[in-house]
Amino acid sequence: MDYAALKVIHITGIAMTFIGLTGILALKMAGGAPMAKRMIFHLAYGIGLLVIIGTGFALAGKLGVTAQPWVAGKGVIWVLAAASIVLANRFSRFAGPIVVFFIALVATAGYLAIYKP
Description:
Blueprint: H1 3-29, H2 35-63, H3 69-90, H4 95-115
Helix pairs in contact: 1-2, 1-3, 1-4, 2-3, 3-4
């Protein structure tokens, strides 16, 4: 697949993941909702994570980089994003710092992708 198309799909996966996380957090802050109403956010989150990891490996392969420090950093960010559902589900009373954490994850991933330190 074309490099630019992979990038678009990758960014779409990032959007899906963090829309899902913030949706789950918002519903928890509003007093909760039945699983049927939360399912769309859980699906966006899960599918987004799978899209991110799949296209991330494809993009790294296209660039010919595998064992670079910034690639490992992106892997750590992916693990933190995957674990963030616990924060959204259980610690909604700390919504402000959690949203800042989500923003920091995206900003750090963007920095690593653009500058490749």
